[in-house]
Write a structure and sequence with these properties.
By secondary structure, the protein is mainly α. It has a domain of about 55 residues. About 30% of the residues lie in helices and about 5% in strands. It is built from 4 helices and 2 strands, in the order H-H-H-H-E-E. The chain has a two-stranded antiparallel sheet with strand order 1-2. Strand 1 and strand 2 form a beta hairpin. About 5% of the residues are buried.
């Protein structure tokens, strides 16, 4: 008896290729699952006024302003702060060195760029989670 659906054993194909092709087809054909339906139209109130012969203007829906709960960086200062830039640079340093620095001085010595000066009376340090923070220079 001969198999007609033997996709995995074609010439030059590996046995698991059929499963991979099937999974690929399901992922590509499945889509993201968003529905593309439009919102229902806003119903205008019916005005039955016998004294007016002009048609009533259509009611426009009130504008709804939704504010995000997280303020954007550009809304605050126009760009990332020096601490945010240092934390991003430290993430790159961690990816390059495959470990976290033990101290801020270790990071600053091998980062490859000039560190910005901290505000007066403060210095850069690493917190318990490994992020760069400003602390009093007495600590």
């Amino acid at each position: 008896m001969k198999l007609y659906c033997n996709f995995g054993w074609l010439d030059g194909a590996k046995p698991g290729a059929a499963i991979l092709w099937l999974m690929f087809a399901l992922v590509v054909g499945g889509g993201c699952g968003k529905s593309h339906s439009t919102p229902p139209p806003v119903a205008s109130p019916m005005v039955s006024d016998s004294t007016s012969s002009a048609p009533a203007p259509a009611a426009t829906p009130p504008s709804v302003r939704i504010q995000s709960s997280v303020p954007s960086i550009s809304a605050n200062t126009g760009g990332p702060t020096p601490i945010q830039m240092l934390n991003r640079a430290m993430l790159g340093w961690e990816m390059k060195n495959h470990r976290r620095p033990h101290t801020f001085e270790e990071f600053a010595g091998s980062a490859g760029f000039q560190m910005p000066e901290p505000p007066p009376g403060l210095k850069y340090a690493l917190d318990q989670r490994g992020f760069i923070v400003l602390v009093n220079s007495n600590q």
